[in-house]
Amino acid sequence: MVNHMRTVFLRYVGICVFASCCILLLISGLPGTLDTCKCEEQRDRDLQHERFHKSFRFDEQTEQRKRLAIIVPFRDRFDELLQFAPHIAAFLHKQGVPFHIFVVNQNDRFRFNRASLINAGFLQVRDSYDYFAMHDVDLLPLNDNLRYEYPEQGPLHISGPEFHPKYHYAAFIGGILLLRMEHFEQLNGMSNRYWGWGLEDDEFYVRIKEAGLEVTRPRNITTGTNNTFLHVHDRLHRRRDTTKCFNQREITRKRDRETGLSTIHYTLASRRELTIDGVPVTVLNVDLQCDKQQTPWCECESKADNANAAKVPAKKKGS
User: Fold this and answer.
1) Per-residue model confidence (pLDDT) at position 200
2) pTM (two decimals)
3) Residues 81 and 74: beta-carbon distance below 8 Å
4) CA-CA 20 to 30 A from 72: which of 12, 152, 192, 275?
5) Is the distance from CB of 173 to CB of 215 less than 8 angstroms?
């Protein structure tokens, strides 16, 4: 009986010693301070961000292919973005194009400036991609022969005037335009003077021509203006900001030789990673800056107020 009790006691002591050793090993493996723990958490977040940013579309089979950054100038069009992301992902997946979508969201209070958002987006992605597409969120390609291929020779205009649902003049290069990174830098990007809707792509067309670059467009497209693209913009729900104030109309119809990629002023307010129907999307929340001495039309009052301000000079003291 005594021997049995001694055996049980020794087993109990052995279990306690073993458990104590295991607990000490576990404690020694934990971070010593809260700051160390926070560093580990930050490192984990950085690794997750890096994996996300590489995108699941960059696999070993496409590693040698040119990488495309899709830059989407954006404000208040979340419903269109929900349709855009899965559509363009499926479209480019069929072509085997490695890509990532960057939504450049204008976060400030000024009027929408598509060209400046494209400039800002370009500066954020130029070191990680081989070429980029400036892509309207409301224009979805339908014809599989619209190839988003590397624009070796010069700018590749996917949404040519013979296929675009709305714009059909020869110099039109809006909608979807693909460029090599070095070509966009050669052109000094786009003008920053175009607050409100329209004309920024026309000015960019002049830059392209003056630089001696040739715009190419897809060939052998058998569809037409009604079935090459889906244009999802609701003009009644989202009216274009076509207001012209101060001397905006005069200035914006001239070639801008002063502003561009080298002169844009903005801050990156935040960067968010999200997925839409399984498609990785990076949202860059950008605050544009406006020099009201140069472009006072970044904020417009009512048309009547602007007309009066333009016509009536300020009164002199004593008059």
Assistant:
1) 93
2) 0.76
3) yes
4) 152
5) yes
